[in-house]
Target: Adenylosuccinate synthetase
Amino acid sequence: MPAVVVVGTQWGDEGKGKATDQLGQGVDYVVKFNGGNNAGHTVVIDGETFAFHLLPAGVLTPGVTPVIGNGVVVDLEVLFQEIEEITSRGKDASALKISANAHLIPSYNRVMDRTTERFLGARQLGTTGRGIGPTYADKMNRVGLRVQDLFDESILRQKVHSALAQKNSLLLKVFNRPAIDPDAVADELLSYADRVRPMVVDTSLLLNQALDAGKTVLFEAGQATMLDIDHGTYPFVTSSNPTAGGACTGTGVGPTRIDAVVGVVKAYTTRVGEGPFPTELTDAMGERLRAEGGEYGVTTGRPRRCGWHDAVVTRYAARVNGLTDLVMTKLDVLTGHETIPVCVAYDVDGEVTSEMPLTQTDFHHAKPVYEELPGWSEDITGVRRFEDLPAAARDYVLRIEELAGCRISAIGVGAGREATITRHRLLG
Model:
C-alpha cells in the first residue's frame, strides 16, 4: 500500500500521533497535509514523551522523510523550537522537507486571532489563539504569505504592508488596539530565510516521484473529521480540511493514488473548545474519564470534555473519509466500569435517527440513545493479542466495529508505541 491517509474520526485527540508513529516505522515518507500548531501529537518511545505541533510524527523514525505539505500553515518560530527540542534530545530532523507553497503564520495573525476571539465574548469559538484561522482567511482572500516569499524580500515586504493596511485599520478603529509595524514583521520573517531555505522543495513533485518509485507515503491529518471546515460541527471547527480529501489538496497528490484511509477512534469520545457534544459527561464520570485518560490538550493544556463513545459520529466519519480501517485507542481507560454505554442513535425532538442530523440546530439538540455493554475489570495494558482480551473487552470492540461499518484493525491498550494489539496489517 504505497499511499495511506491517517485521519481522526472524532473531534481530535484520538491518538493519531501514536498511530502515525507506529505506521511510520514501515514507510518512507510521513506528510502533514493540513492545520498548523493549533493541534498536537503525543508520541511515547521507550518511556520518553515527545509532543509535536508542526513536525510530522514520523520525524522520530530513522530513514523516514518528514514532509510539511502546502496545506499546512507554518509558524516558523514554533517550527524551529520543535526542531531544536528534538535535536537536544538526540533526534535528527535534518531530513525535513517543506512545501514552497505552504503559508506562513505572521505575528499579526496571532494578534488578530486573540483579539477577535475576545471581541466575540459569549460567542467565542474556542480557538487556540495561534493565528491559524486568520492565516487561512488570508490564504482564501489572496493576501497570504507563502514560504517561497521568504526568498524575495521585496515581494514579502509588499505583501506584509498590503495585509496590514487593512488589519491595522481594524485594530485601531474597531478593537482599539495599537497598529503593528509591517517592517518589523517582515524583518522577523526574513530572519528565518537562510535556515529554512535548505528544507524547501516542490513537495508535490517529491511525493509523486516517490510513489512512482514504489515508496510508501503516509499522510497524517491534524485535528479530525468533526472539526473539518466543511464536514464538522460548523462554526465550532478548524479552518482546514482534516478529512481524507484534504490529503490530496494539501499535498498535490491525486486521489487515484490513495490506497487506504485509516481512521483513528478513541474508545470513548472527547473534544476541546466550544460546540455541541451529545455524549458529553459533565458529572463525576466525566471527571473520571478525564483523569484516567490524561485528557488535557497537547497544545493548550486545556482539560478535554469527555463522554461515552458516539457510534453515530464514528459511522459518519467512516462515510465522509471512505475509511478502510479503524485504529481504536485508549481501550485500557475503560477498564473498571461495570457497564459501558455506547451512543447508537440520537433523539432529536422525539425522532430517533442513527445518522448525523441534517442541520447543526438538530445536532445541537440531539440527545444520545445509549446501548449498555458489559464492562471488564482485568488489566489489559500488557495484552498483545486480541484473543487474550477479556471477553467483554472483545465484545466492546466488535460492537463498535459493527456500528461503524468498518473493521478495527488495531487497538491501543496503553500509551507506549508497543502497547498495541494488531488484528489486521495496515500496510499490506
Q: What stands out?
A: The CA atoms of residues 135 and 207 lie 25 Å apart.
